[in-house]
Specification:
It contains five helices and no strands. It has 96 residues and is an all-alpha fold. It has a domain of 59 residues. Helix 1 crosses helix 2 and helix 2 packs across helix 3.
Length: 96
């Protein structure tokens, strides 16, 4: 924009930026890192997945492609990520 912004970030770049903030604050373990990042991104971008988590309809995760990511996380991370997102991120910027 008039030479001030070299380009607009993609949705994926914005998600990576938001996850980096989460990562620097909570430092998920190495073995949990990729699962936490996928869960973080899926929770933000996949409305159906987010509703399953919020409504605690965990049986529906057996047919959801993100179910495996959820199962591989610690219970602490399963709760921490949605809580962090609700408190710190506006989902509006990621909806189409």
């Amino acid at each position: 924009m008039y030479g001030l912004i070299p380009y607009f970030k993609t949705k994926d770049e914005l998600l990576d930026d938001e996850f980096e903030k989460f990562d620097s604050r909570y430092l998920p373990s190495e073995e949990m890192f990729s699962f936490a990042k996928n869960y973080f991104k899926s929770y933000i971008t996949d409305k159906e997945f987010r509703e399953i988590i919020e409504n605690k309809n965990f049986a529906l995760l057996n047919t959801n492609p993100n179910g495996e990511v959820f199962r591989n996380l610690t219970p602490e991370m399963r709760n921490l990520i949605p809580q962090y997102i609700k408190e710190n991120i506006s989902l509006n910027q990621f909806t189409v």
